[in-house]
Amino acid sequence: xxxxxxxxxxxxxxxxxxxxxxxxxxxxxxxxxxxxxxxxxxxxxxxxxxxxxxxxxxxxxxxxxxxxxxxxxxxxxxxxxxxxxxxxxxxxxxxxxxxxxxxxxxxxxxxxxxxxxxxxxxxxxxxxxxxxxxxxxxxxxxxxxxxxxxxxxxxxxxxxxxxxxxxxxxxxxxxxxxxxxxxxxxxxxxxxxxxxxxxxxxxxxxxxxxxxxxxxxxxxxxxxxxxxxxxxxxxxxxxxxxxxxxxxxxxxxxxxxxxxxxxxxxxxxxxxxxxxxxxxxxxxxxxxxxxxxxxxxxxxxxxxxxxxxxxxxxxxxxxxxxxxxxxxxxxxxxxxxxxxxxxxxxxxxxxxxxxxxxxxxxxxxxxxxxxxxxxxxxxxxxxxxxxxxxxxxxxxxxxxx
Length: 401
Description:
Blueprint: E1 2-11, E2 14-20, E3 29-33, H1 40-53, H2 60-67, E4 78-87, E5 92-100, H3 102-111, H4 113-117, H5 129-147, E6 151-156, E7 167-173, H6 178-189, E8 192-196, H7 207-214, H8 219-224, H9 226-234, E9 238-240, H10 246-265, H11 272-284, E10 288-292, E11 299-305, E12 308-312, H12 319-333, E13 340-344, H13 352-365, E14 370-374, H14 378-382, E15 390-391
Parallel strand pairs: 3-14, 3-15, 8-9, 8-13, 13-14
Antiparallel strand pairs: 1-2, 1-4, 4-5, 5-7, 6-7, 10-11, 11-12
Helix pairs in contact: 1-2, 3-5, 10-11, 10-12, 12-13
């Protein structure tokens, strides 16, 4: 999958955004820049939440959180939220997300004084016009949406009161029927990932989660929090690269060892384990080598100190080493391939030399992915051609008053 183009007319800090990511550029890595507060993180989160969460009932809450208080133009029945052009390897699919005013208009009519004055004074508890008319109107609206090949994603609140749902989020993918559109979105959702620092303000979280992430705790406390772990289970494409999950490292090596054993049983040569150990993991570390106990239950690192090997533990690694290692493990453990990988401020904690090198790292670790990197790093951008670097240009929003 490859995101060719994203258009966002007006969402939070984003105004008339139109960015193209060329599919014939190599490497498929695109730094994304803007002024401070220019909307880099907002754009990545909008892309991720719409494309990763739109077909899962369990993830609907993240869409509602993201869109809470998004109140499109009241004078228009339909407002475009975002348009994506996706290349699936053989053709381009244009995905349009809309905010619809129709539900709001029906509710306004039902609650209007003029409408209520027409109701009989005595209203039976069953089958009365007050209940029947809205249901009939709703049915007509939904039938009209289906004729237009519009897929209903969810309802959300455009006001402070999240108990009231005023707007509907709908999606249209070319001429695909709603059924086929849902199938395509479901497959696409498995190919969209988002990585960020745990201290970021995640718009797809509710207030409770945001408070949890913004509290001044160390990273280990935050990552051990059951609420955050529960969140990551519900939204599997989401990753915070502020820590090294030792269990994932172990599992990666166990899987490699099992592949070798299975290959040997089939009479084939295999060196997954050695390749993982020597070529990949050790190349990430500086003057260090990863070391496992025979049963793979304990991980240590060997530091070459003037010809003498010194035992180190994961907590002895630098934050830059831990970050590079955690990103590598995340990509490999989740088998992230041919995917759209969105990464926010990947350069934080990395030495300027490593900010430059992270481009070649990503290309080496999985070249089939498209990486879009929201960044402030000049060194990172220098590793690519100027045409690779995309910028969200500041556009002033016209005062309507």
